[in-house]
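Q: Could you fold this chain for me?
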Amino acid sequence: MHEVMGAENAVRELPAAVRRIVEARTGDAVFVIAPDYRVVYWDEKAEEITGLLAGDVLGRRCYEVILGEREGGAPFCTYGCSVMHLARAGRPVSSYDMRITTRAGEKRWVNVSNLSLDSAEGPYLVHLLRDAQERHDTLEMARGLIRISSRKEAAATSCRDVPALTSRQLEVLQLIAAGKTVKEIGAELYLSEATVRNHVSAVLRALDAHSQLEAVAKARELGLLSR
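A: Sure. Below is the predicted structure, expressed as structure tokens.
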């Protein structure tokens, strides 16, 4: 009963224009910030979303209570925030998402719309708050799928970039990398020099190389040879 009376008193103390707004029906949570950043109204739906009770919030500075964050963790709610700055300049404030910390310590995304009402002391900010956690969960899931897909695509591309050499061509390539001549390779593998030259030509084509030196360098980049 005492809390109900406290809430009613808080409404009566608001400027008439602000009082008419908070008394209107809406499905959103509503809280009001005075020109000096004090929380002067905090309804039951705001309590439900944040877990913060009106009795613990009213009269405190908004940036000490809401602890809003941008994506990445940078603070959104601060003294001299952009929302109050725009309101004082007589400019409209677009809706935005921010992540709040609930009474239980949980991080939760909410979407906020603002109404700015001028008074002799400065602008009062009526905040309309709604849960946006599910949308951010869906967005994060989509980002995760994109990251997985990108990694798979990169792996597939990497595999496609490595030319398929036969075991004999790999042997020839390894001997070229070891500094062997065509004659020496033929003797070691019991192949004619003409056959070795054919293998060398095939290796150059597969690696898109114009010389044996270039072929060896590309093969090392692709992991076909130890460095």
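A (continued): DSSP finds eleven helices and five strands in the chain.
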